[in-house]
Fold these 3 entries.
Entry 1:
Amino acid sequence: MSNQLPVINLMGPTASGKTALACELFERGNFELISVDSALVYQDMDIGTAKPTKAELEQYPHHLIDIISPLEVYSAANFVEDACVLIDDMHARGKTPILVGGTMLYYKALLEGLSSNLPSADYAVRAEIEEKGECEGWDAVYAELCSVDPLAGEKFKVSDKQRIIRALEVYKLTGQPITKLQAEQPKNLPYRYNFHNYALLPDRLELHGRIAQRLKIMWEIGFLNEVKGLIEKYDLDENLPAMRSVGYRQALDFLRNSDLSSEKQREMEDKALFATRQLAKRQYTWLRSLQETHKFTTYLTAKQAQEDLRNCYG
């Protein structure tokens, strides 16, 4: 372990206080910040992603924010590649990286590695699978997966849409089950890092209150106008990964497919709130899964984490 340099992973569900904690730590030590958020990579998506403001980013610079347009795709493999380059550069300059965010798939990929030589995401294939799900129902998509990859069918549930899409995508691109390829192919593990894993896991009811308040503020400061601007600037499709971000899909559907009445807007805002709570639920589940195989320190509140981490890194 002596030759392994430290990497601090600061995880938690949306609205748990991760970013404020990371910025507080940044002020106290020789750190640099790397965003671990699949929505913050997109330019022009600021309000709905709770992106730090320009002033905040000047004071607390984050890497991997605003790096691609909403029309592009950014995968877990892209993240691992970019993050490792940044981490190595920080270590070379005597800095300690703090990775902060809520995209647990990215953390899992960094902690455990990715199977090599799996095909990259193919937008057209994914759109075809999603269209089948919309037209024939996800039971039919799940049945197709079970027929070509029974082992994946055992591992996944019908509700695991993104995992089902990825498994079918790999099969359509390679002709082989993803479970077979994963079992056969080596992992790319970043063994040279010593990960320090911390997680903010606030009480669910308290978190739901924070989420509701955050969304209320987002609507008030112009989230809907932001989405209107995106529609004007880009040739958006609801199946783009950027538009699958919570809030954006609901707003895009409202603006394109409703009568824009106040009643429909309230329905849309309720759907966005529900989707954000579901995101937080998935993030809790991911974190518990990661805790089964990795050492973690968890905190109920950001204040607890601040006091503890000040002693460790202050």
Entry 2:
Amino acid sequence: MNLIELLRKIKFVPLHMLFWGGVWLFYIYFFGFNSANQPYVIWFSNILVPVTIVTTYFVIYFLIPNYLLKKKHWYFLLYGIYTLIASAYLITISMFLGFMFKTELNTDLMPPLSKSLPFILIGVYLVVALVSAFKLLRHNYESIERNKSLENKILEAQLQIKNQELQYLKKQIHPHFLFNTLNTIYGFALKQSKSTPLIILKLSNLLDYILYQIEKPKVSLKEEVLHIEEYIELEKMRFQDSLKVNFKSQPIPDTIQVTPMLLIPFVENAFKHGQIIDGFLRVDVEIFLKNNSLNFSIKNTIRSTDEKKSIKGIGLDNIQKRLQLLYQDQYQLEIENQDHWFSVNLMVNNLNASIND
């Protein structure tokens, strides 16, 4: 037993003494009923209290922890019977000693209730039962508190793991996204295009969003859509006449929020893996809200249906993991590859309520 545990037990000694003092008074009142032999009642109570103390502490500190709480019910019953026999034996000796030395072998001088072993056992085990019940209630309360504390620790650990995984996924998105946009600037710089400053300006806006806004748990959906439009403008400059984009988006309220970089990786994936057919890369994007649900669809042209194995790169893998972490069962994601079109359809239900803050 360590020092802290010892001090904790010593702190309750006065409380135990007060309780056993109350038991002693109870015995005096109980066994003094219909009796004028007060000295005998006090003497008998003085003998009976230690027997009760030993029996009670044996039950609550040995039988209950070692057998009842460990669900060894047969052992608990067996040793409980042994305890009952031992306490009955000690009480019988006390009755016999009182009969010999306190009443001078005159049973008429003995208090009525002190003559009956069943009544005495009832008085003793009433105290034992009361203390045992308190012990079990306290044990249940402490178990509930420990379980709550353990559950809180598990939830905190899960939250930390979740946040770490989200940060890891975000960091994977950064270099992938920047690599493609910097390639666009590099190509225009080689051509000494007059559009290079405009591209750099649009990229700076995207960099601000990626490097700073992405650390926030939520951003405005309207802001996400604006950066999608900037990204598309950059790609139009890169593809020039070989790109056809059909972008549709209804007005979005400022109050609607999503996790940052939720939709941009889908757009990025479309331009990265999309292929030119008949002289054009075609990309169709549609974003709209309905009943507080986000509906997003994007599709791009591909030459062969065998490309499906290669187009699900870092972007789509990461976004699916993030969707599961952040929206869990509140989203539906469909990915299809047919008729030279690769399409992604995303629906996020109950939009604001499903985001984990």
Entry 3:
Amino acid sequence: MALLEIENLVVEFETASGPFRAVDGVSLKVDEREVLAIVGESGSGKSVSMLAIMGLLPWTAKVSADKALFNGKDMLGMSQSERRRIVGRDVAMIFQEPMASLNPCFTVGYQIEEVLRFHLGLDRKKRHARAVELFTQVGIPNPEERLSSYPHQMSGGQCQRVMIAMAIACNPKLLIADEPTTALDVTIQKQILDLLMNLQAENGMGMIMITHNMGVVAETADRVIVQYKGRKMEEADVLSLFEAPKNAYTRALLAALPDNATGDRLPTIAGLMLEGNASVAASQ
């Protein structure tokens, strides 16, 4: 049985000009211990797809699917209280911007201990000990001291490590990493990716890596889904995708990768996400 199985997911938002379909019939499957990358330009519906399954979109969003099962449970059919027991414990998400995701009014230690209190019911002493253990595990120096820090007192890389610690606090079965290296310098990006992959291997988690970076896909993924304008353009194992992409949009993405050897001008992809020319994506 797949860890996460989604069929024909549709997400719509009401706008001044009428309904806007951000996700249009996306299907995917993730097995235990597997890393699935979802790749595409900004605005292609990558993050929205996962937020919809986790119930984290505004109530005005219209979400439907023929199937949306996590570990055999219907994520869209369950009540809010049932979903709250699963989200954060069995399935967790690392969000794009850690500084925006962490509450500036509370210490990072308080925030991670709240996760442990809500989902695991640990007492104060055990919460503190587990928080120190998690900070040590994700490579935050002086963990005892750092627990009393506020987000603004930590660097972007350290805040991202705090978000990772919060996400793995309850040993989730599925970890969703949404652009986990955005806005980090190259050295820190490498450290964060290595940390995530080590944690995934050690804990046996399934993982969904949401990214627009094909280099991250090559380093981390077992399988890849390419999205464009809310639709799935192609799905393949990572080696097949890079060696023999079948979709025109996938080929265009790969052609836009920088090549330091040649120094040639990079080709561009015509059109805009919201209104552009979709012909490149329509060619199967």
